[in-house]
Design brief:
The chain is built from no helices and 44 strands. The protein is an all-beta fold. The two termini are about 40 Å apart.
Length: about 600
């Protein structure tokens, strides 16, 4: 077998400053570009929660003029009815400046509870505003949606002739950086330096130095003398070296260092800093795909569905090491050369005994139980695999070459466990129009914001963009994570795929107005809501309402499920493939309307 696959490439750059303390101290999450979100314990949006939460900053900026100036910030939260909302918490996120060692000031808290719809924070400006006068941007988000952050801007206009409170600084020196793997140890050391000449304080001037882990659920401390615990102290020594020891939980560990010493004038001084150690999650082991919303881009005749990818490791930690993601969709299926369970003959087979295929870790190929692959075009088609249980190593997209009518060879190596009873589909991102021969319709899948990495909350939003015609079509959405697990150097590949029916913004049925005495057939057609396009070659469910008194009527033919003559509307070109319901009116003693209501797409298969 070839070398194990790549996974999780990008080492998460990490925060360095504190929840409280002096210059350069911050243990809060850091946004990737100064305006996005992150967190110690990220919260994944609950797509089943129907409450619409709005976060508002009544005042979104402040001007800092004096060193250590205090600014009070109120974050207001409203529900969908514009009432104050007091459930959950508001989290503050630092700008990316902290990654460069900038003192961005401190907050009294990282997470604030909400009372009467208001979460309050107290901010203390940097001790030396003149050190960097560029704006500082903080963001705040509600725990129900870490991707919807509001920005507060601190503008620095320092007054002249301000004094700096101290000329000493606590510094850290980490052997391998400021991140570490699960169940590992990282060596760190801390010392006090005189900023006037850059020299380290001599041991004779050091009274004591104490180091404390502020997140004991993630890590503890040990020193070279065998001492261990959450707090370690040395005396008369301007350096403390120790190991930070992680367990099975990932996240940010604030490490508080308190130094007591005598300055050059013999006056007792105290410095307190909070440094941060990021514990990276383990290799990803589970992926989910969750629908979030739909947008319409009328100018380009497209719908865009937003889906959330969530990735965890085997300890249920949200993956925080920024793996790269590839993604795509099978919108049109190859015709199977063997019998299938779907009426259109698509090359799609469900997982399970007697129907699913198998992926072989020795021969790097995929085998179907029947001769289904005769029509496969290996220059344009892909294989998408999915299953039940923990089979993410085999799931996702595979590039292929044809072997036989029952076997497809994989272009890439499959370096895991041979798995059977896997669901699978073959096709590409275009679909042929069933009735308008020669017309083609496409779907495109890409990362929201064009950043194809899982962020520090373990999630990523992807966009599924498609032509109107594809509304109501059942497609295969897939994602692959391929990279190197930076904590172990292990190359890993996992994926996930899901059959989804594209929903657009819903469907709209026609209404027919009839006069008293009407007798005859009425055909009510289905359109895609918000467009002038009819709903083609797709299934739907609906309800018919007849408003006229004493009107006798019955169903006639219709193009969706339930009628034996046209149960397979996805392949029929009756009525040009447009969805419809026929109503027969036998007598109308009064005028009225026939309304086709509650029209929603059904799964294609």
């Amino acid at each position: 077998m070839n070398t194990i696959k790549l996974f999780l490439s990008i080492l998460l750059v990490i925060t360095t400053l504190s929840l409280s303390g002096c210059q350069g101290s911050n243990s809060d999450p850091v946004s990737d570009a100064g305006t996005t979100t992150g967190g110690i314990v990220p919260v994944v949006p609950d797509v089943n929660d129907t409450t619409s939460i709005t976060v508002v900053l009544p005042v979104s900026s402040a001007v800092l003029t004096t060193n250590s100036q205090v600014v009070n910030i109120d974050v207001r939260v409203f529900d969908s009815a514009n009432n104050p909302y007091s459930t959950g918490t508001i989290t503050k996120v630092n700008p990316s400046d902290v990654l460069l060692g900038r003192d961005v000031g401190t907050f009294d808290k990282q997470v604030s509870t909400i009372t009467n719809g208001i979460a309050s924070f107290a901010y203390t400006a940097p001790a030396d505003l003149d050190a960097n006068t560029s704006n500082i941007l903080f963001s705040f988000y509600h725990d129900s949606n870490a991707t919807d952050a509001k920005i507060f801007t601190m503008s620095l206009v320092p007054d002249v002739n301000q004094s700096i409170s101290t000329s000493y600084q606590l510094r850290t020196s980490s052997v391998d950086g400021v991140s570490m793997a699960l169940e590992s140890s990282e060596s760190v050391s801390y010392s006090v330096y005189d900023l006037s000449d850059g020299s380290a304080l001599v041991d004779a001037d050091m009274i004591s130095m104490t180091v404390t882990s502020l997140n004991t659920s993630l890590a503890n401390l040990t020193d070279s003398k065998g001492n261990s615990g959450t707090t370690l102290t040395v005396s008369a020594q301007n350096n403390i070296s120790l190991n930070v020891n992680s367990n099975t939980k990932s996240g940010l560990v604030p490490i508080k260092v308190v130094a007591n010493f005598r300055d050059a004038n013999g006056i007792d001084q105290n410095l307190t800093e909070v440094f941060s150690m990021l514990i990276l999650s383990g290799p990803p082991s589970a992926i989910s795909l969750s629908y979030a919303s739909t947008e319409q881009v009328a100018a380009r005749a497209k719908f865009i569905e937003k889906w959330v990818v969530t990735v965890t490791d085997k300890y249920s930690n949200l993956v925080n090491s920024n793996p790269s993601v590839s993604m795509g969709m099978i919108a049109g299926y190859t015709q199977s050369s063997a019998a299938t369970a779907n009426v259109a003959g698509y090359l799609h087979y469900l997982p399970g005994a007697g129907v699913g295929g198998s992926i072989n870790a020795t021969s790097d190929d995929f085998t179907a139980l029947t001769a289904a692959f005769t029509n496969v075009d290996d220059q344009n088609d892909i294989l998408v695999v999915y299953g039940t249980g923990y089979k993410y190593d085999a799931s996702g997209k595979w590039d292929i070459t044809t072997n036989s009518s029952t076997v497809l060879d994989l272009v890439d190596d499959y370096n895991s466990t041979t798995r059977s009873e896997m669901g699978f589909a073959v096709g590409n991102n275009q679909r042929e129009d069933t009735c308008d021969i020669g017309s083609k319709w496409v779907a495109n899948v890409y990362a929201d914001g064009n950043t194809a990495i899982i962020d520090s909350t373990g999630t990523m939003v992807i966009n599924v963009e498609y032509d109107y015609y594809l509304t109501g079509k059942s497609t295969m959405l897939w994602v692959n994570l391929v990279g190197i697990q930076n904590s172990t150097g292990e190359q890993v590949r996992i994926g996930e795929a899901k059959k989804i029916t594209l929903r657009a913004n819903g469907l709209t049925g026609e209404t027919y107005v009839y006069a008293k005495g009407f007798n005859g057939q009425v055909r009510l057609e289905v359109k895609i809501t918000g467009t002038s396009e009819y709903y083609h070659n797709s299934r739907f469910s609906s309800h018919v309402v007849v408003t006229g008194d004493d009107t006798n009527w019955t169903y006639g033919n219709f193009s969706s499920d339930g009628n034996t003559s046209e149960a397979n509307g996805i392949t029929s070109c009756i009525n040009g493939g447009v969805g419809y319901v026929d109503i027969h009116v036998f007598s109308a003693l009064d005028a009225g309307e026939i309304q086709l209501t509650n029209v929603v797409p059904n799964n294609e298969f």
